[in-house]
Every structure is written in C-alpha cells, then in structure tokens.
Please model this.
Amino acid sequence: MKKVIVIGSSGSGKSTFSRKLSERLNIPVYHLDQLFWKPNWVMSTEYEKITIQNSILEKNEWIIDGNYSGILEDRLQLADTVIFLNLSRRICYYRVFKRFFKNIGKTRIDMGEDCKEKISFTLLKFIWNYPKQRKPFLLNKLDKIKENKNIIILSSTKEINNFKYL
Model:
C-alpha cells in the first residue's frame, strides 16, 4: 500500500482512519476537505480542486481521504488500494453529532482554515441519501477496477478497529 484512497459517507470516520493509517504506514495523509475548503466555508473551484489533487497524485506515496466524486476518477486510476468505510446511517449520524459537540466553535484539524464545525441540513440529507445515491455509484466504480486494485470494504466499527494496518 503506497497510494491509498479512503472513501465513505460523512461521519464514517475517513479522516480518523486515514490519520491512523498514515501513522502506521508512514505515508503522508491528505484530507481533501482541508485542502478544498477555504476560510468561512468557501469551496474551491473545480479547477482549483483538480490542481490541488494533481499535485498530490504526482507524489510517490499518499493517503487521500475524501469523496469528491466529480474528480474521483484520477484517484481511482492511480491508487493501488481503495478503502471504503461502509457504515450505517445511524453510526454516521452519531459521529457527526459527537464531532459537532466536541468541536463547537473550533475548526477540526482535517478541515479548511476558519471552517468552524457546523451541522447543516445539507450534510444531514447527504448522509441520509448516501446509501441509495452515492453508495451504489461507488460500488459500481469499485467493481470496475477490482481486478487491478486492492479493494477493502469495512462495514462495521469492529472491522475498522480490527483492520490489520491500524
């Protein structure tokens, strides 16, 4: 594992998992939320996102945490390993609210500068719709590359905690 992407619903624990994996493998981690969100929740343009992502992809080793399916294809092509955190809505909601209360008035370490923790209707709707809208899209993408990539789907907190590289 030298080029790893970690995907999953908001609240699935992508950033925490990626940080732990980075420490264990001694490979730098890049949180797309941290890189794409500008101060006060202003999203980078598509061009900026592609430029930022390309600067990471040209490196020899990386762990990239985040979905951003509009620019996922290049990550999928260059990754040797894809880890999909496939957790239930209930767990994702719990973690999002836990994260919110833990970080009220603060910016998380894996988030863009001056993006203070918040919960929005858009975020809650995204988590609710993820199993029916995003998950099938991602599983289809993973099915198409499974012959050439190491695909790991972790579907419970226990599976994540027991993952051999953490």
User: Anything to note?
Assistant: The longest strand covers residues 3-8. The chain has a mean pLDDT of 96. The radius of gyration is 15 Å. The domain at 3-157 is CATH 3.40.50.300 (Rossmann fold).
